[in-house]
Amino acid sequence: MMKIKFTFVAVTLLVLVACSTGNKATESDENIQLDSVGLQGEWQLQSYRVDCESTEFENGSKYKLNFDEPYNSFSLSTDCNMINGEFGITNDTIRFKNMLVTEMACDNMTVEENMLRLLNDSTAYATYSTDTLRLIAPQIGSDIFVNITR
Predict the structure, then answer these.
(1) Cα dihedral 97, 103, 83, 71 in deg (nearest 10)
(2) Which of 3, 26, 53, 102 suits a disulfide with 81, CB 3.0-4.6 Å?
């Protein structure tokens, strides 16, 4: 019986370590450059990774993140609801706050729920080029957007 408990605990720890390692920022994420002016415009969700599960979206997806830098506001449109709020950048981190979410009942709200979790917990962002934005929530995961206004 003791051997079974030990095996169960060992397997559980392996799974937890694997998930937390997969969601942590990579070495290239440490070279974060902040440029809020570079955020201005519309970004389309390309992929995200939440709780060790990755999801990719085709070009033309309805999930779009808009930044209005002069007003420090943002909006995220999904296939059903909208998330609006403010963003602030300080000390190499981005924070989303004062978020309002429309609450229409939708068939599948998994992406919306995951995006809301990522926005609530995002602590940093990196632009790898002028056309790619990655938001990172170290305890949850990350998402990648591509700029569609340039």
Answers:
(1) -70
(2) 102
Q: Locate the domains of the chain by residue range.
A: 2-147
Strand, coil or helix: what is 139? coil
Confidence (pTM): 0.72
d(CA 117, CA 69): 22
Amino acid at 87: F
Q: Which amino acid is at 102?
A: T
Question: How would CATH label the architecture of 2-147?
Answer: Beta Barrel (2.40)
How much is the pLDDT for 128?
65
First-to-last C-alpha distance (Å) of the chain: 62
**DSSP for residue 24:** S
Distance of CA 94 to the CA centre of its chain: 12
Q: How many CB atoms lie within 10 A of CB 74?
A: 21
Question: pLDDT (tens digit, 9 = 90+) per residue, 67-111?
Answer: 998 999 999 998 889 999 999 887 667 889 999 999 888 888 888
| Joined tokens for residue 92 | 């190499």
The number of CA neighbours under 13 Å toward the Cβ of 129 is 5
